[in-house]
Recover the amino acids of this structure.
């Protein structure tokens, strides 16, 4: 009987191979289970996963695309995000969106996660997790659901400030950790190497123009301190973030500080109901900014939201901004 079973299996393998199916090598299932449990460090704490997560719910576009870029759409129950994907048709992982479900365009909730049958939620502080809303890793743990926190959003202590590592290090850390959690470390390492090479290839100017990142806000602007992705995107592109001395990620400042620091370039974060053109009109007509170099010289550059939060689009954003800044320093 054993001989007949082996022969039948061999014939089945030949038939499937002829049809173009990929046959996993013998022992792969055992090797996969041998990988677990696996422990990674996430926001200064150890997180242990007993098995490969199978029904992940992600919150926001950058977080979702970390999964898609690693080819993990088949491990997702779905994603939560508004209509803020940016230029999806231009990313290598665009097909991943069609292979999972758009669960909601509203705020992520425990109800959404439970209905999706999630075994892991991948979100961040101010990127889904919120003490005020009671949507926290601790609350999910009480429901038997694991969490992974976006490294860009890690809290730096007991207060609300976020950021414990440089933005690109946060990107590479999350890719490496996801590689371990989902047993796709080879894919993660390849992606990290590609991103590092793309960033390293960007030429650096002799002079670094000063840059202000404008996210939103008219009474007070919302911007990037040194721990949000724009800080390193600006730096690696050859610029200097005028708010880089703020020990926080995304934060609110006063217009007086923007005027005092007199940025040569303003980068607009394009998202939401108030799009890039509306933000440009506000900035160019706002009297306190009239004397600022970027406004006087009409040096305003636009990047999409997903370019400016931790995501696999960060390296391409650096390349694009670098090309613009070279025109500033040579013009």
């Amino acid at each position: 009987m054993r001989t007949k079973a082996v022969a039948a299996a061999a014939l089945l393998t030949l038939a499937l191979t002829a049809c173009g199916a990929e046959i996993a090598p013998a022992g792969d299932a055992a090797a996969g289970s041998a990988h677990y449990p696996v422990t990674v460090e996430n926001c200064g704490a150890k997180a242990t996963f007993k098995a490969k997560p199978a029904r992940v719910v992600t919150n926001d576009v950058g977080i979702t695309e970390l999964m898609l870029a690693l080819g993990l759409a088949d491990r997702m129950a779905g994603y939560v995000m508004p209509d803020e994907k940016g230029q999806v048709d231009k990313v290598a992982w665009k097909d991943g969106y069609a292979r999972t479900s758009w669960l909601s365009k509203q705020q992520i909730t425990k109800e959404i996660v439970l209905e999706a049958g999630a075994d892991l939620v991948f979100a961040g502080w101010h990127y889904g997790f919120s003490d005020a809303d009671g949507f926290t890793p601790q609350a999910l743990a009480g429901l038997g659901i694991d969490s992974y926190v976006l490294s860009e959003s890690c809290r730096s202590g007991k207060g609300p400030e976020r950021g414990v590592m440089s933005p690109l290090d946060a990107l590479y850390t999350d890719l490496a950790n996801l590689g371990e959690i989902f047993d796709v470390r080879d894919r993660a390492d390849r992606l990290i190497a590609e991103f590092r090479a793309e960033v390293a290839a960007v030429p650096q100017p002799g002079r670094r123009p000063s840059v202000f990142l404008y996210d939103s806000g008219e009474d007070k602007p919302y911007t990037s301190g040194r721990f949000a992705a724009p800080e390193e995107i600006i730096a690696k592109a050859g610029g200097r973030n005028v708010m880089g001395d703020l020990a926080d990620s995304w934060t609110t400042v006063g217009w007086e500080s923007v005027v005092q620091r007199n940025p040569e370039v303003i980068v607009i974060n394009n998202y939401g109901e108030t799009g890039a053109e509306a933000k440009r009109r506000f900035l160019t007509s706002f009297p306190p900014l009239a004397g600022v170099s970027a406004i006087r010289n009409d040096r305003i550059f636009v990047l999409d939201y997903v370019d400016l939060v931790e995501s696999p689009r960060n390296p391409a954003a650096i390349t694009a901004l670098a090309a613009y800044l070279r025109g500033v320093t040579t013009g």
Notes: Residues 119 and 145 are 5 Å apart (CA to CA). The first strand starts at residue 38 and ends at 42. Confidence is low (pLDDT under 50) at residues 1-31. The first helix runs from residue 2 to 18.
